[in-house]
Amino acid sequence: MASTAQQITPAMRRLRALSLADRHRLYLRERLDDQVRWYGQTAERHARSSRRWADRGAGRGSCGRHVRRAHLLQRAVADLGLLGLFGSVAAAFAALNQLGRHGELAKAYALAYQELLTIRSIHDAVGTDEDLARMVDDGEGAVSREHTMWMAKRIERPPPESG
């Protein structure tokens, strides 16, 4: 089935007709700066989530330590089984943090953010069409690498074939 969609749209032709400076400015503002913002915010959001889950787990663990101290002082507290309860809750929070992979995602997004910032700073002064093409390749390559890693972590891998 042949597609009637154009490979190069009229909007793309208008963009290509702009001056080098206008294309450069447009790419920086509409793509690169937008991606820098998104990756920075997303990295920070996952870092906060990771800290929040870790703090919750640590808080429950701390409660468990206090209950244990109370247990040494008063046998009635131990009869309620609170030590096991708080330990279980702390373990559940740690498991939820791992399940959400917030720490891992925060690091991956922060790495992409730093790479995009570096690309942005290196390519602030574009002087030729080749410079702009290299900047676009570098920027899109950084986003593509992060996206590929993200996809690879979410796709179930088939078991290896036995030969």
Number of strands: 0
What low-confidence regions span 5 or more consecutive residues with pLDDT below 50? Answer: none
C-alpha Rg (nearest Å):
26 Å
Relative strand content: under 5%
Q: In terms of structural class, how would the helical and strand content be classed? A: mainly alpha
The average pLDDT score comes to 76
Give the N-terminus to C-terminus distance in angstroms. 38 Å
Descriptive report:
α2 runs parallel beside α6 (129-154) and α5 packs antiparallel against α6 (129-154). The protein has helices at 10-17, 20-73, 75-79, 82-100, 102-122, 129-154. It is elongated. 82% of the residues lie in helices and 0% in strands. The chain is built from six helices and no strands. It has 163 residues and is mostly helical. The chain has a domain at 31-127 and 138-152.
List strands and helices in order, with pairings:
Layout: H1 10-17, H2 20-73, H3 75-79, H4 82-100, H5 102-122, H6 129-154
Helix pairs in contact: 2-4, 2-5, 2-6, 5-6
In short:
By secondary structure, the chain is mostly helical. It has helices at 10-17, 20-73, 75-79, 82-100, 102-122, 129-154.
Notable traits:
163 residues, mainly alpha, 82% helix
